[in-house]
Amino acid sequence: MALFDTLRPVLHLLDPETAHNLTIKTLKYMPHKHQVDPQSLHIKLFNLDFQNPVGLAAGFDKNAEVPDAILNLGFGFAELGTVTPLAQHGNAKPRIFRLSKDRAVINRLGFNNDGLTPFVARLKFRFLNGGIIGANIGANKDSQDRVADYELGIKSVLGLCSYIAINISSPNTQGLRALQEANALDELIERCLAARGASRTPMLVKIAPDLNDSELEAIAAIARARQIDGLIVSNTTIDRSMPLLSRQAKESGGLSGQPLMHNSTMILSKIYKITHGKLPIIGVGGIASGADAYTKICAGASLVQLYTALIYKGPGLIRQITTELDTLLLRDGFKNIAEAVGTAHH
Ligand SMILES: Cc1cc2nc3c(=O)[nH]c(=O)nc-3n(C[C@H](O)[C@H](O)[C@H](O)COP(=O)(O)O)c2cc1C
């Protein structure tokens, strides 16, 4: 951890994508450390025992290169990917921008990844290590049948991960977000559930923060009718209406980090309300402290994830968040995370 605190000023002198690749390389050689989380942070969901509710969001380890190093940093779970059936380069560089003054990032990577074959091989190689690993799957940009890409992704990772996240909310693959529209979503989920077959691997859908109330109602109704296991709320935003100080704010792509906190939490709160708290939600978008994580939990998230704050605060942030969460639960008289979920609505 201290190593990353020393390295961070150097990493921030590099362009964001080079800094990211160097971080992944360094993580491969990190020593393994065992840490025990307070009992109050344990939560059972999808029949999985999470040691703490703070996960790493998708996009950091797109190729499943360092899942165990991520878990060793103190995350309760790690979501790998997005992986698409075939390897693809993604959009032209530069395609990641730091908005340091806003504690934010804009990315328009466009699902750059090595494809399913190495992803699956790496999952097989580390399978016996355990830990809670999500596989986030997507579709290739040039695919003739995008739903078939999701079916193949599901069949390939079944049995090798703890849950599957269906990503239909990246703003950087043209037309992908259209899969969130009611008819398209219903067909997608029907086919994805069929691809899952008799397996009980939980299947969640990751949605955008840029959805209006009627779109949210339609998604919630389909999620309920098709009995998917949960929603991940949310991906990055294409909205730029919030005040942003950095000159990079005009770059196109998905905005993440602090400016996303409010909208993504609003959407999560609405979904919780519409579904009467019956559909598990993973809350993600702008979390940079224990208080932020707690806000999402009280708004209705059973688990949370983060990515961008890690760029600004380093891996020491994870322990800071879990410690703060424990203190906040105690302050408010909750014995555990499960008791706090959705309490902002009471
Ligand atoms: C550089 C970068 C790449 C990302 N790539 C993916 C991805 O491949 N799949 C995905 O579902 N989300 C991806 N995301 C979105 C994050 O998983 C997360 O939903 C979003 O960044 C909001 O969380 P944050 O504010 O804590 O970063 C990416 C985010 C960033 C910053």
CATH architecture assignment: Alpha-Beta Barrel
CATH superfamily: Aldolase class I
| Unreliable residue stretches | none
Structural class: alpha/beta
* Sheet with most strands: 8 strands, parallel, barrel
**Helical amount among residues, as a percent range?**
25-40%
Order of helices and strands: HHEEEHEEEHEHEHEHEEHEHEHHH
Strand content: 15-25%
How many domains? The number is: 1
State the total count of DSSP E strands: 13
End-to-end C-alpha gap: 39 Å
What would CATH call the class? Answer: Alpha Beta
How much is the average pLDDT?
Answer: 96
What features would you describe in this structure?
The chain contains twelve helices and 13 strands. It has helices at 2-11, 16-28, 67-72, 116-125, 146-157, 182-196, 213-226, 261-274, 290-299, 308-313, 316-331, 337-340; strands at 43-45, 48-50, 54-56, 77-83, 96-99, 104-107, 133-137, 163-167, 203-207, 230-233, 254-257, 281-284, 303-306. The protein has an eight-stranded parallel β-barrel, surrounded by four helices. A three-stranded antiparallel β-sheet has the order 5-6-11, with no helix packed on it. Helix 8 (261-274) runs parallel beside helix 9 (290-299). It binds flavin mononucleotide. Residues 57-59, 62, 82, 96, 105, 107, 109, 136, 167, 170, 206, 235-236, 256-257, 260, 284-287, 306-309 line the site of flavin mononucleotide.
Keywords, please?
346 residues; alpha/beta; TIM Barrel; eight-stranded parallel barrel
Which helices and strands, and how do they pair?
Layout: H1 2-11, H2 16-28, E1 43-45, E2 48-50, E3 54-56, H3 67-72, E4 77-83, E5 96-99, E6 104-107, H4 116-125, E7 133-137, H5 146-157, E8 163-167, H6 182-196, E9 203-207, H7 213-226, E10 230-233, E11 254-257, H8 261-274, E12 281-284, H9 290-299, E13 303-306, H10 308-313, H11 316-331, H12 337-340
Helix pairs in contact: 5-6, 6-7, 7-8, 8-9, 9-11
Residues 57-59, 62, 82, 96, 105, 107, 109, 136, 167, 170, 206, 235-236, 256-257, 260, 284-287, 306-309 line the site of flavin mononucleotide (FMN).
